[in-house]
Design brief:
Elements: H1 3-20, H2 30-36, E1 53-57, H3 62-73, E2 77-82, H4 85-98, E3 103-108, H5 114-124, E4 131-134, H6 152-167, H7 169-175, E5 179-183, H8 207-228, E6 235-239, H9 247-252, H10 254-260, H11 267-279, E7 290-292, E8 295-296, H12 309-325
Parallel strand pairs: 1-2, 1-4, 2-3, 4-5, 5-6, 6-7
Antiparallel strand pairs: 7-8
Helix pairs in contact: 3-11, 5-6, 6-8
């Protein structure tokens, strides 16, 4: 594409984006991706990731799998972190079919199980980590608890990723330019950070709201880890993928899927910004930001969802307390947070 035509296409994309972005339908869906992609620079993902070590949680299907494929296609050494050995092995086989020369391995990790997180970190050792993608997700319709006594959605989206990031901090710093990417959700726009009852112990359980609240918490933690890592070579960002047609959406939100299936993004379209944040030079200067379709977005649409610094600190302290209560040894310290 010529420079002039590329500039015109980008300008059209920006204008159309301003029209559709105030609306969920037309922005989060397939149409939104196609409009926003007019502003993308194809060269951003024309990169060689040979020698880069990338970890992706929940990589056996959907956005996590497509992220792993995209990284492997560009030469990265990708580790699929999956809780189910059979489904994980099938995912590695499918990835190798898509990318015959791709480097992919499977490691068992249930991110909702803090012992499993520690066990993986111990096995992984001191090898540098260039990219860590927090993608694993759940959306149960009833309140479930893990063996640690944590509510499952909170454990999967918040406590487990918090611990994994802490334990892999030395590995990320050893990379030279480590990147952490949190896969959040546009649903977080509807909910305020919940610190009084984050695990739904005193409210009638609602799986969709629990999901949205933990996705809000992920964005806040992403910002706080970015603060904690300032002065290092590690960047931390969050994103939301829009509405993508994934196995998780089909199984957890069947009515939503039936109504929207004709306008949903493909898993690869949902994964595009994850891959961009993980791989592109254009993303490298950013840290502590929230992205949608390769562009920085605001984290608040409603004044009622704005959290205070006290609430942000309370979230961090809650995660610290849960991690420390479940371990027999002192955790890895994070600079900037006692």
């Amino acid at each position: 594409m010529s420079t002039g035509l590329s500039a015109l296409t980008g300008a059209v994309g920006r204008v159309l984006g301003r029209i559709v972005d105030p609306f969920v339908v037309g922005s989060f869906d397939r149409t939104g991706f196609r409009i926003h992609s007019l502003t993308f620079d194809p060269a951003d993902l024309d990169v060689d990731l040979s020698g880069r070590r990338c970890l992706v949680t929940g990589a056996n299907s959907g956005i996590g799998f497509e992220t792993a494929v995209g990284l492997a296609e560009r030469g990265a050494d990708v580790t699929l972190l999956c809780r189910n050995a059979e489904r994980g092995a099938e995912a590695v086989a499918r990835l190798r079919e898509r990318t015959p020369n791709g480097q992919a391995t499977l490691e068992l990790l249930d991110v909702s199980d803090l012992d499993s997180v520690r066990s993986f970190a111990d096995r992984f050792g001191e090898a540098p980590v260039d990219v860590l993608v927090h993608n694993a997700g759940v959306l149960p319709d009833e309140r479930l608890e893990t063996d640690d006594g944590l509510e499952l959605t909170f454990a999967t989206h918040v406590a487990g990723p918090f611990l994994l990031t802490r334990l892999l901090q030395p590995n990320l710093e050893a990379s030279g330019e480590g990147r952490v990417v949190w896969v959040s959700s546009g649903g977080m726009y509807t909910r305020r950070l919940q610190v009084d009852d984050p695990q739904w112990q005193h409210r009638a359980y609602d799986g969709v709201l629990a999901y949205a609240e933990t996705k809000r918490a992920q964005v806040v933690l992403s910002e706080m880890f970015a603060e904690a890592f300032r002065g290092t070579n590690v960047t931390v960002n969050a994103m939301h993928p829009g509405w993508a047609d994934t196995p998780a959406v089909r199984s957890s939100l069947p009515l939503f899927h039936r109504v929207t299936r004709l306008i949903l993004r493909t898993p690869a379209e949902g994964a595009d910004t994850v891959l961009w944040l993980a791989a592109s030079a254009a993303a490298r200067p950013h840290t502590g930001r929230f992205f949608f379709d390769r562009h920085v977005r605001r984290t608040q649409w409603l004044p009622t969802t704005q959290e205070s610094r006290v609430e942000r600190d309370a979230l961090w302290q809650t995660c610290e307390a849960l991690v420390e209560a479940s371990e027999s040894t002192d955790p890895v310290p994070i600079r900037g947070h006692a």
